[in-house]
Design goal:
With 150 residues, the protein is α+β, with helices and mostly antiparallel strands. The chain is 23% helix and 43% strand. The strands form two sheets. It has a five-stranded mixed β-sheet with strand order 1-7-8-2-6. β7 and β8 form a beta hairpin. It is globular and about 45 Å long. The relative contact order is 0.28.
Length: 150
């Protein structure tokens, strides 16, 4: 399965298994919800979201991932597109994240519900988010969101 939009370049000789994913874009007071993933000197920023587990839909995965990573309960509003991203995880494993990017709405925020200790909710201006997000696919999704809002 290869999406129409594919970001990143695979390294020769490596297999990049497809990992179905869903990521979300939540705006609040002109800021975008992002997560800073603590990896020491190799820390990075991502959109909240991640792998689809089992028989989950993209919407279900998005809601679960937001809660686990940020403590925020969201409602999926609109799927704005699909993209793939070749990358290597922090442990070096190559993957191709392929999935939907969703506009989502904040429903509630319960910091105690966050379970991923290495993820921190950070609100960034969309332009700053586009510059700082680890994946080009995530920056593309932010640009697509801004074009819809223009």
């Amino acid at each position: 399965m290869r999406p129409r939009l594919q970001f990143g370049a695979p390294e020769a000789g490596l297999d990049y298994p497809v990992r179905p994913t869903a990521f979300g874009l939540v705006l609040h007071e002109a800021r975008l919800a992002c997560v800073r993933v603590d990896r020491g000197e190799r820390s990075y920023f991502d959109l909240p979201g991640g792998a689809i587990d089992g028989d989950e839909t993209e919407e279900q995965a998005l809601i679960r991932e937001f809660l686990e990573e940020t403590g925020m309960t969201v409602r999926a509003v609109e799927r704005i597109g699909e993209a793939g991203q070749f990358f290597r995880r922090s442990d070096g494993k190559p993957l191709n994240n392929v999935g939907g990017f969703w506009i989502a709405e904040r429903v509630a925020w319960e910091p105690a519900a966050k379970v991923e200790a290495d993820h921190e909710l950070v609100w960034l201006a969309p332009g700053a988010a586009m510059e700082r997000l680890r994946h080009d696919a995530h920056a593309w999704a932010v640009a697509a969101l801004l074009r819809r809002r223009a």
